[in-house]
Write a structure and sequence with these properties.
disordered C terminus, Endonuclease III, domain 1, two-stranded antiparallel sheet, mainly alpha
Length: about 500
Amino acid sequence: MIWRERRCERIRTLHLHTRQHKHSLFVSASRPGYDYIPRLARSVARHRKSEPRAAQGSWGDNSPENETSTGPTANLAHPPQERKSIKMRTSRISKETSKILNATSGSSAIRRSTRTSIARFAHNSGTEDIKDEGAEIPDIEDILPSRKRKREATRSPVKQSPGKKTITVKKEVEDNVTFSPAKKERKTRKPARQVKNDQGEIEIHPPNDWEEVYATVKEMRISGAASKAAVDTMGCERLGQEDVPPKIKRFQTLIALMLSSQTKDTTNAVAMGRLQKELPAWKEGEAVGLNLENILAVDPKLLNELIWVVGFHNNKTKYIKAAAEILRDQFNGDIPDTIEGLMSLPGVGPKMAYLCLSGAWGRTEGIGVDVHVHRITNLWGWHKTKGPEETRLALQAWLPKELWHEINWLLVGFGQKICLPQGRKCGECELGLNGLCKAAERGKVTAGRKIKEELIKKDEDGTILAKEEIVKVEEVSKYFPVNAAPNSEV
């Protein structure tokens, strides 16, 4: 039975080599349940049977010489001490054999062993062709198919009858693609901004669409929905009497501006009318009405009663009496012709000073910014300011000077008729309908577009003769002052 022992020893040596190359680990990972050693034993047995008996030589027969052999494949039936020495020599010889095989291998890098790579250890290596050691041996992972491999669609063969031509028809599938209409490019609105020029100086660039907005609002104020505003007939510049001397008219303009603070134009017009008609003369034989002498002579209580309809009438009574004394003592009974002089009067701020200088003296040195101008310009996105004075400086930085006087009349009337502080009429505003106002309420704009009806007049041939637009606009015929009875005359 020596040949069986030798065969087992040879199998054990080959197994040590395959373990060094991590083949057993790879086989167990790639093919679960695969036992390599019994398979290798069966392979060696097949090769052993195929060899001639003479080739088996010393380790195939049961000759006495082999049984007394002292080689590494000695009989396992030896005594225990001799068997232990044989086992030690066998392990040492297997290690030396693996070192020699590694040294003589063609590739220095360690790679996984496959059947092809260990085929050179077969007993019939001389009879079978083995690939060169330098040639690449494919890994088993490259041979195994992928789990998620998609099956290719198999085409059924087309039966062709003899004498007939086969015609292949290609069906093209057309995708239904719906093209949405091209959207209109949104206009980018840029507020007033500071930009450095080539010389390094800072310049103020105006809002990019201010000219179009200004022209649209001006057209609305002249002949559109914002026309016939209260400021057109009851503004402070128009409350002065025409049949009085210029000096008295300038004084009346100043008093109208002092009364207009926190007061509607309609209410201010009522108070000015009472002063012009009911203010008593300072002495007998003089004219009754609003002038400097009568204001100086009137009793404060009576003056307070005459202007009680305006807001803060108690404070305004004190301001008017004090300003009249300053005009008499410092300005020779006339109003100042400078901004500094006007602002030195009690109750007169920058807005009143610039409007008075422009309306009374005809000189425009600044913009009179009230709540309407401040609120509307911020709604348009021209700037972001916190108060009227900051708005005035921002507008004067880029607005042409010839428009400084007009912009107050323009935006005050627009704020009274269309862009109200509460309940804005965006459906009647051309800015909202044309997409020029970023603060326009969309619901009101949509409703306003439906209200407009276009009548087209055509002749017999179908030629368009004229187009007329009918816009439903509510007009207020009378203006009633605050705290006044509806039946009272204005």
